[in-house]
Amino acid sequence: DDVKHDIASYTRFKIGKIERLRGDQHTSLRSAVTAELGKVENHQGMFLWSYLMCKEVKHQLNIAAIWRLLKNLPKGLDALYSRICIRLAENELHREFGKSVLQWIVASSRPLRFAELEQALKAMHLQDQSDTFFDDAVYDAEFGLGLLWSRKDIVEACGDLVTYSGLSDGDMIGLVHLSARHFLCSRVDELKLPPDLSSSSASVASFLVDIPKAEC
Fold first, then answer.
1. Can you give the pLDDT at residue 141?
2. Within a 10 A sphere around the Cβ of 154, how many other Cβ atoms?
3. Which residues pair with 113 in a beta bridge?
4. Nearest-angstrom CA–CA distance, 53 and 47
5. Residues 6 or more apart from 7 whose CB is under 8 A from it?
6. Does the pLDDT of residue 213 top 90, yes or no?
7. How far is CA 23 from CA 16, 26, 200, 207, in A?
């Protein structure tokens, strides 16, 4: 009961801070979101699910999209991670960058310092300067500007599958949870996507990392 109460309180607080849902005109939607995310059959006692779902609600482009999300809430973390990957795949501007960042982070046995990640991406850039994601808007080695993405940008490009520790706590970027590593190391046929996501399996698969299970 304590966990249920804590998750409900957390959800109510986070949803209340979403700018798009503020105002009297959105009272019913705000209540619906809080109620659905607070149901035990949805969060199953997992704070991580609640945390990521609040992020997903915030990322929706409009009110109609939030209503659609409520009608097809992902059951379990794999379904939620899959939905995040599908959303990332739809963003042509950030998609390839997010994939590259996730590949390096998943391949690492520990969270990476921002400087380490920057060097890794720079090495990738030197290997293949034709890669579409390494354009002037992302990396400017010619003028010595380095990676033109902030730490916050990196987290957003990876769909909140990664977290940033903060400058005062090591300046580290790592996966949001061990379950995210297991998910990203899986084959798409192992994930058992729900029917509403099965048509987007190729988008999910494009974010999975080909690393032996023993290393995940």
1. 47
2. 22
3. 172
4. 10
5. 38, 43, 45, 47, 50
6. no
7. 10, 6, 34, 37
Contacts for 63 with CB less than 8 Å, ≥ 6 apart: 20, 26, 29
pLDDT at 128: 53
The two three-digit tokens of residue 99, written as one number:
């994939």
Whether residue 176 is predicted with pLDDT greater than 70 in this model: the reply is yes
What is the average pLDDT across 42-61?
A: 93
How far is 162 from 176, CA to CA, in rounded Å? 5
147 beta partners: 139
Strand, coil or helix: 177: coil
pLDDT tens column, 28-51? 999 999 999 999 999 999 999 999
Instruction: Tell me whether strands 172-175 and 162-164 are parallel, antiparallel or unpaired.
Output: antiparallel
| Cα–Cα–Cα angle for 210, 96, 173, rounded to 5 degrees | 75
Q: Rounded to whole angstroms, how far apart are CA atoms 204 and 187?
A: 10
